[in-house]
């Protein structure tokens, strides 16, 4: 049985997928995950999930969108407006990062 | 975990669903999250009519995207609230529909003209973001994670709102006057966004002690004023004489004279007991009823055998 492993490096962070382990049950899956995925990397917590329990949909099956021009929904589009507050500037910077990654992939 | 340990350990993203949290903490966090989630729903419904009334196709698209975002934020927050194990999502939505769920004071007032739109879309959203960014450091991790996504999206809302304000305040004299009038109506409500002053707040101290809140109502209100009073003035809006806003030179910050605000009205609203409260709750019920056929058709489609491949919304 295959268990997908998600590692959280510090309290409050997101659990991110980091690999998988073979194990007959949850208890051993946790032990194997701790050894294989927790030992070398900075780890605060691990999740294990049976692979069969994970649903997936990908670009072969659906179109995720993103092809329509939706510039109106990005803070970066309102170029004549300076961010009103630091938190607005921060949000805009996060959006600009995502926009750049979309452009890099296209 | 006992309450003393919670207070000792309280800090950003300290507690997660796997921790055994005391009932006081779970109830306080549920109350905060449910209020926040309800406010996203009610704010979305208040702004929804302006998708139709928007003066241009760009505004219409942006407004529709924004309302969609707000309802999405509500879903995230109900999930984070559910993770405390006190109330289910359905219970919270039922309470809101029955008029028992509490929500933000600003969303208990009708909004009728386009000139009022930036009062919500710029000032209230700006205030919301000012508060939400501090909640990225709340002690309940699922709440902080919801704030990561909310704040990511919210920058667009605030800039779009400011863009509308800028357009109105660069419009005809009549447009500017109507916008100023809307500002005078909404300004005291916007200041009350941050809730009662610390000394009158029932929940503030506990929420800070256990790390659910990292800033007090008063701190948030003052720093909001520091940023948004100059912004209002930049666009030619005149801040009304009352409530008195005083500049504290020593600390380089603005304070509001709280006695000038109508706290009777605020507490009536806090109990969902104002005329506006009933109007907003009922108008949402009517909207819910009007689109019941959509839910029904979705249920019957989901119930049908062999439902096809879901299509992502483009």
UniProtKB/TrEMBL annotation, chain A:
<dbReference type="Pfam" id="PF06243">
    <property type="entry name" value="PaaB"/>
</dbReference>
<feature type="region of interest" description="Disordered">
    <location>
        <begin position="83"/>
        <end position="106"/>
    </location>
</feature>
<feature type="compositionally biased region" description="Basic and acidic residues">
    <location>
        <begin position="97"/>
        <end position="106"/>
    </location>
</feature>
<dbReference type="InterPro" id="IPR038693">
    <property type="entry name" value="PaaB_sf"/>
</dbReference>
<dbReference type="InterPro" id="IPR009359">
    <property type="entry name" value="PaaB"/>
</dbReference>
<protein>
    <submittedName>
        <fullName>Phenylacetic acid degradation protein PaaB</fullName>
    </submittedName>
</protein>
UniProtKB/TrEMBL annotation, chain B:
<dbReference type="InterPro" id="IPR012347">
    <property type="entry name" value="Ferritin-like"/>
</dbReference>
<dbReference type="GO" id="GO:0010124">
    <property type="term" value="P:phenylacetate catabolic process"/>
</dbReference>
<dbReference type="Pfam" id="PF05138">
    <property type="entry name" value="PaaA_PaaC"/>
</dbReference>
<dbReference type="GO" id="GO:0005829">
    <property type="term" value="C:cytosol"/>
</dbReference>
<dbReference type="InterPro" id="IPR052703">
    <property type="entry name" value="Aromatic_CoA_ox/epox"/>
</dbReference>
<dbReference type="InterPro" id="IPR007814">
    <property type="entry name" value="PaaA_PaaC"/>
</dbReference>
<protein>
    <submittedName>
        <fullName>Phenylacetate-CoA oxygenase subunit PaaA</fullName>
    </submittedName>
</protein>
<dbReference type="GO" id="GO:0097266">
    <property type="term" value="F:phenylacetyl-CoA 1,2-epoxidase activity"/>
</dbReference>
<dbReference type="InterPro" id="IPR011881">
    <property type="entry name" value="PaaA"/>
</dbReference>
<dbReference type="InterPro" id="IPR009078">
    <property type="entry name" value="Ferritin-like_SF"/>
</dbReference>
């Amino acid at each position: 049985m295959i268990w997908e492993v998600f590692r959280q490096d510090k309290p409050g962070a997101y659990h991110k997928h980091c690999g998988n382990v073979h194990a007959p049950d949850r208890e051993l899956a946790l032990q194997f995950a701790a050894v294989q995925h927790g030992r070398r990397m900075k780890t605060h917590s691990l999740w294990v999930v049976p692979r069969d329990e994970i649903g997936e949909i990908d670009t072969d099956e659906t179109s995720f969108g993103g092809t329509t021009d939706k510039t109106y929904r990005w803070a970066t589009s309102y170029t004549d407006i300076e961010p009103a507050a630091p938190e607005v500037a921060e949000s805009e910077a996060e959006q600009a990062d995502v926009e750049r990654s979309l452009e890099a992939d296209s | 975990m006992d309450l003393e340990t919670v207070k000792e350990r309280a800090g950003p993203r300290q507690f997660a669903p796997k921790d055994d949290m005391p009932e006081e903490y779970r109830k306080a966090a549920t109350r905060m999250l449910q209020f926040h989630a309800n406010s996203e729903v009610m704010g979305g419904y208040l702004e929804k009519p302006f998708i139709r009334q928007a003066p241009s196709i760009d505004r219409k698209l942006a407004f529709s995207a924004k309302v969609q975002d707000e309802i999405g934020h509500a879903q995230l927050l109900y999930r984070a609230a559910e993770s405390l194990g006190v109330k289910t999502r359905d219970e919270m939505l039922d309470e809101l529909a029955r008029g028992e769920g509490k929500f933000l004071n600003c969303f208990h007032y009708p909004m009728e003209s386009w000139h009022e739109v930036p009062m919500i879309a710029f000032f209230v959203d700006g205030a919301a973001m000012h508060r939400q960014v501090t909640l990225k450091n709340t002690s309940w991790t699922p709440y902080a994670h919801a704030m990561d996504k909310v704040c990511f999206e919210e920058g667009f809302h605030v800039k779009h709102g400011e863009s509308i304000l800028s357009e109105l305040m660069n419009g005809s004299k009549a447009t500017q006057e109507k916008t100023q009038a809307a500002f005078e109506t909404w300004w005291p409500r916007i200041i009350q966004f941050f809730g009662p002053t610390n000394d009158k707040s029932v929940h503030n101290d506990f929420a800070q002690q256990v790390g659910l809140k990292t800033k007090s109502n008063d701190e948030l209100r003052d720093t909001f004023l520091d940023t948004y009073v100059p912004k209002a003035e930049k666009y030619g809006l005149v801040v009304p004489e009352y409530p008195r806003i005083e500049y504290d030179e020593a600390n380089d910050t603005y304070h509001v004279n709280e006695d000038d605000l109508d706290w009777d009205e605020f507490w009536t609203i806090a109990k969902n007991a104002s005329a506006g409260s009933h109007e907003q709750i009922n108008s949402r019920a009517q909207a819910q009823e009007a689109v019941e056929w959509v839910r029904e058709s979705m249920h019957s489609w989901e119930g049908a055998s062999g439902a096809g491949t879901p299509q992502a919304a483009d």
